[in-house]
Fold:
Amino acid sequence: MRINKYLADKQYSSRRQADELIKEGIVFINGRVAVLGDQVSETDVVEVKKSKNARPPVYFAYNKPVGVVTHSAQKGEIDIKEAIRHQTKETLFPIGRLDKDSHGLIIMTNDGRITGKLLDPDEYHEKEYIVQTKEKLIYNFDQLMERGVMIEDGNGKRFKTKPCVVRLLSDKKFSIILTEGKKHQIRRMCEALKMHVTDLKRVRVMNIELGYLEPGGLKKIKGEELVEFLEDLGMENPLNS
Structure:
């Protein structure tokens, strides 16, 4: 197993952060300084020394406005990291994506360990959205969505979305709770049923709710809310550390 994957599996860091730790020279395999690409087995002794630049993990809820780009911003686009720069001195990155035309809750953190745990569809972590459509919702729309819809995976292959929970809010609005997050999934599910999304807002990720956080607002996740969030991810409880 590659050393960066090993560190990610052991919850030291994400793979990308593991590469940075290795470059910093603070990762050791059997007493030897590790290098990028090293292979390790369960019998090897792997140590990570404390980094001089280490900062404690922090977690924030951000209400992303429409137009802000979460990943790979192009020239002229508003990058999410730049959008929050004036609100905190922490260097944060978003967990997951929310497309440019959508808005609502994004978890921002400096803790790469939670990326895989939060985004893995096999972990069944709930994400809730409020969706407005151009057309009136068709008969049995909620039931059709809940049992799964056939969409393409981006590579031309069709698959059925996982069961979800849908609640009708009006003849053109509904809430949906997903435990997976394929690219543009909700929009593509609606289009498969001849519906077109005009507004999509994420209002909850697991136990973290958007609440009354204003668009563009950033709020630190702390206390019991943070404890529950990390425990549900299988991470260390910060109040017991």
User: Anything to note?
Assistant: The chain has three domains: 3-48, 59-120+207-240, 126-205.
